[in-house]
Design brief:
It is a single chain. By secondary structure, the protein is α+β, with helices and mostly antiparallel strands. It has 2 domains: 154 residues, no CATH class; 141 residues, Rieske [2Fe-2S] iron-sulphur domain (Rieske Iron-sulfur Protein, 3-layer Sandwich), CATH 2.102.10.10. It is built from 5 helices and 13 strands. Helix 1 packs antiparallel against helix 2 and helix 2 packs antiparallel against helix 4. The structure holds FE2/S2 (inorganic) cluster. The site of FE2/S2 (inorganic) cluster (FES) has 11 residues, from loops.
Length: 323
């Protein structure tokens, strides 16, 4: 049995025979709590921790109500303050004062010594254990509330799922090409070498739908950028997403001589002439601009055959290519 010695000199020397183990009275000073009125102190500690629990619960409610940072901070502060003060007071006033020292010169105990120890421990009373059981429940409840409300920011701030938002725009089969003023674009509206920013009628001004319409060729000329896109460019027109595949800036410039679209943000150049389907030839853009398939209806208006052939926008989607 190891040596247990209190401040007042009571000791049990493990090197003696088990019969010589000194029993320290439960009344010894080191086993007494510091509180003059333990029951009253216990109630005060419980109350403090309950205040902390309410603070955490209030934080959860405030977060769900989208309350201001002031109330979030106040409620969380009350939670941690109440719980912290309660735990510290519990340890300081309701636990045996000690100090206790344990000699290490003997590392094992005989069977008889262990039996003596259990007997000795059992005879020391259970006052402190009863108090601890009550407070542990409050501590566990406060910790559980804290654990739950700490999930709130995660659950509430994630927002709705994007679903297929990253993959589609408002362009669909039959959409009229429309100017920023809402006017439908006729095939005679743009001269060769001219450009126009167009949108579908149901999303005029939409950031994801903005499209560069370029009249690369002459009237009557069918523009083919890839073998699989033979009927995508009627009357000399081609249309590409205006959202740069690098970082999303508007690809707003067209160089007629080289048949290239230019993104002014980081100077990415996209080839759209000579059978090139918007392939980046300079700059950081990682993939081609998605092309919008066009046709001219019976009244001469430009319309889309379908939506974009691939997700528009920055290259982090890591999709697309040249088919
Ligand atoms: S956003 Fe277009 S090149 Fe960077």
């Amino acid at each position: 049995m190891s040596d247990l010695q209190g401040r007042d000199g009571h000791s049990r020397d493990g090197e003696d025979s088990p019969a010589s183990i000194e029993r320290v009275s439960i009344d010894a000073p080191q086993f007494q709590v510091a509180a003059a009125h333990p029951r009253r102190t216990e109630r005060a500690v419980a109350l403090t921790m309950l205040v902390g629990l309410c603070g955490f619960a209030g934080f959860g409610a405030a977060y769900f109500q989208a309350a201001s940072n002031f109330w979030l901070g106040i409620s969380l502060g009350i939670g941690f303050l109440g719980l912290g003060v309660g735990v510290v007071a519990w340890g300081k006033y309701l636990m045996p004062r000690g100090p206790f020292s344990e000699s290490r010169h003997e590392l094992s105990s005989t069977e008889e010594e262990r039996e003596k120890f259990v007997e000795d421990l059992a005879s020391r009373g259970t006052v402190a254990v009863e108090r601890r059981g009550f407070l542990v429940k409050i501590l566990a409840a406060a910790s559980a509330v804290l654990g739950i409300v700490s999930l709130f920011p995660l659950l509430r701030s994630l927002g709705p799922l994007p679903k297929n938002l990253f993959y589609v725009t408002k362009w669909k089969k039959g959409s009229y090409l429309t100017t920023a003023e809402g006017q439908r674009v006729h095939k005679d509206d743009v001269l060769t070498g001219g450009v126009l920013t167009v949108f579908p009628e149901n999303d005029v001004g939409g950031a994801l739908s903005q499209t560069m319409l370029v009249r690369v060729g002459e009237p009557g000329q069918n523009m083919v950028t890839m073998p699989s896109r033979k009927n995508w460019g009627p009357e000399g027109y081609l249309a590409f997403s205006k959202v740069c595949t690098h970082a999303g800036c508007p690809v707003a410039l067209y160089q007629q001589l080289t048949h290239q679209l230019l993104c002014p943000c980081h100077q990415s150049l996209f080839d759209i002439g000579n059978g090139q389907p918007g392939v980046p030839v300079f700059g950081p853009a990682p993939r081609p601009l998605p092309q919008l398939p066009l046709y001219v209806d019976s009244q001469g208006y430009l319309r889309s055959r379908a939506g974009f052939n691939e997700p528009i926008g920055p290259g982090f989607w890591e999709r697309g290519g040249t088919e």
